[in-house]
Design a protein that fits this description.
The chain is of the alpha+beta class and 255 residues long. It is 45% helix and 12% strand. The chain contains nine helices and seven strands; from the N terminus they run H-H-E-E-E-H-E-H-H-E-H-E-E-H-H-H. The protein has a seven-stranded mixed sheet, sandwiched between helices. Helix 6 links the parallel strand 5 and strand 6. Helix 3 packs across helix 6 and helix 4 packs across helix 7. The longest helix is centred in the last third of the chain and has 23 residues. 38% of the residues are buried. It comes from Stutzerimonas azotifigens. InterPro entries: Aldolase-II_Adducin_sf, Aldolase_II/adducin_N, Aldolase_II/adducin_N_sf. This is Class II aldolase/adducin family protein. Belongs to the aldolase class II family.
């Protein structure tokens, strides 16, 4: 596939699907832009409209900067490719993404990362604390899943969904996190919040002295207010679009 066709809408692709592909490709590039990639590993998926629970995901083996709207894979809940592609998906991602997309109608985009700060926090028994500005925004929104090894096997799906419950952040203990939301923009903003919370928690933990804990009521209020802003004000869309503009300008992207 040459450079021109990588960024040209195929004739069989609807306008709605192509717009989703462009937005998801930008999300991959943003994760790289912020330095949150794990080389060719990890994965971001976006569910396609319709009752079949099909979703888009990255071709395994490509850097996030090599992901384009056209080379994203379209797969079913078993990880089977629904359109021809020279690429395959990452088998370690199918159990996680298919479980969530199959069980949670409200989650249209799922992002999995394990940056160093996030990996450090999820290794600790207490997990995320809620005593800083970003950590408070996660209050009541985090589910915890016991590490079972690389997520390759179907039998773990039920347990992951039970661990997630009705929440939007799944801590994979001793591993990383998965965040899911009703749009790519909201999922990316949630990821950014989780990453900032992890960075702050690691920095505070490295300092001497006693932490100043927040009251649970204040943390809950902060989390509820953030959720309302994202849900009702277009806050996440403004943030996402601004980050895409910044990235495209600095990287001189032509698509």
């Amino acid at each position: 596939m040459n450079a021109r066709t990588e960024f040209t809408q195929p004739t069989q692709c609807s306008e709605e699907e192509w717009a989703l592909r462009v937005k998801l490709a930008h999300c991959y590039h943003l994760v790289d832009y912020f330095g949150w990639t794990e080389t060719i590993f990890n994965h971001i998926s976006a569910r396609l409209p319709g009752p079949a629970h099909h979703y888009l995901v990255n071709p395994f083996g490509l850097n996030y900067t090599e992901v384009t709207p056209a080379n994203l894979l379209k797969v079913d809940l078993h990880g089977n490719k629904l359109e021809p592609s020279e690429y395959d998906g990452n088998p370690a991602g199918f159990a996680l993404h298919s479980a969530v997309h199959g069980a949670r109608e409200d989650i249209q985009c799922l992002i999995h990362t394990h940056t160093t700060p996030i990996s450090a926090v999820v290794q600790k028994k207490r997990g995320f604390t809620h005593d800083d500005f970003y950590g408070a925004q996660l209050y009541g929104r985090v589910g915890y899943h016991t590490f079972e090894g690389i997520t390759l096997f179907d039998d773990e799906k039920v347990r992951m969904i039970e661990s997630l419950g009705d929440k939007h952040i799944l801590v994979l203990r001793n591993h990383g996190i998965a965040v899911g939301e009703s749009s790519i923009e909201k999922a990316f903003f949630l990821l950014w919040t989780v990453q900032r919370a992890a960075e702050n928690q690691c920095a505070a933990g490295a300092l001497g002295g006693e932490d100043n804990p927040l009251e649970e009521g204040i943390a809950a209020k902060c989390a509820d207010l953030t959720a309302m802003l994202i849900r009702e004000s277009g806050f996440a869309i403004k943030f996402y679009d601004a980050m895409v503009r910044k990235m495209r300008t600095e990287r001189q992207m032509s698509w």
